[in-house]
Amino acid sequence: MEQAKICLEDKNYRDAENFAVRALELDNSSLEAKLFLADVYVLRGEEGKAIKLLGEVCSKYKDHQEAYQKLIDLYADKKDYESILELSKKTEDEDVLELFAEYFPQLPEFDSEDGVYSEEFSVAISAGEEDSIYYTLDGTDPRQGKEYQGPIPIEPGESVRIRAIAKNEYGLYSDEAEGEFQVELQKPEKPRASPCGGSFYETQDITVTVPEGCKAYYTWDGTTPNASSSQYTKPLAMPEGNNILSLIAVDEHGMISDVQKCNYIYMPTTQNPMGSE
């Protein structure tokens, strides 16, 4: 190896190679000789031989940072980023994996946890600053999906499975992020009438409190109201007799509340028994 180093300093690459090969014949486990020989191959323009030799070293010594760095640099010079990706899968050593950090995009992140929501909302996706994000909503491969441009709206009644992946300047894809988001709207509260029922001997107006963001509809004939029934817009005059006011609230999404029923007995011609002698 000393002779090999002297030859390398003199730029006598052929003899440097021969001495390094001889060193490996004497000690095939010599990492020094293998890494030296890989450098000589690169100087001689034989990157293929260097890649093969360094690949063998990395496969056997999965925590050898120098060998991994040399091989990463060779792949990067060739713009062979897919091979860098494959190389990263051969080790679990944290220090070695740090060498790959600049080549891999960040895993996309959703700004909302997946699950069931009670109101419509939008899901934003983020990744590395220079990364592009691609996604699908139908469960297909996000590599063939749309490029992310802004938050994704989740409409009422929808169950959306978002699959997202990031792509960096090297054309490498991140791991996939996936989330399922669903909006199940809750029906609005019932309208409240005041007075809410009773017996009356003098006329009174009935005021209805409508839940925010809703419209109220009513009937007096005992049927269940719907969005085609009379809409409450002002206090209602109490009709004579024994009548039931049925009320519903309908929100902006068409969700309908339970029915509120109020019984009014209005007898204007009947003397109040409590007032008789």
Strand percentage: 25-35%
Strand order of the largest sheet: 2-9-8-5-6
| Termini gap | 129 Å
Say how many strands there are. 17
Summed over residues and divided by their number, the pLDDT gives a mean of 92
**CATH-assigned fold name of the largest domain:** Serine Threonine Protein Phosphatase 5, Tetratricopeptide repeat
Helix segment count?
A: 7
- Major sheet: 5 strands, mixed
Shape: rod-shaped
> Structural class of the helix and strand makeup?
alpha+beta
- Backbone CA Rg: 39 Å
What low-confidence regions span 5 or more consecutive residues with pLDDT below 50?
none
Given this structure, which CATH class of the largest domain is correct?
A: Mainly Alpha
| CATH homologous group name of the largest domain | Tetratricopeptide repeat domain
CATH architecture descriptor name of the largest domain: Alpha Horseshoe
How many domains make up the 3D coordinates? Answer: 3
Order of helices and strands: HHHHHHHEEEEEEEEEEEEEEEEE
Give a brief description.
The chain has 277 residues and is of the alpha+beta class.
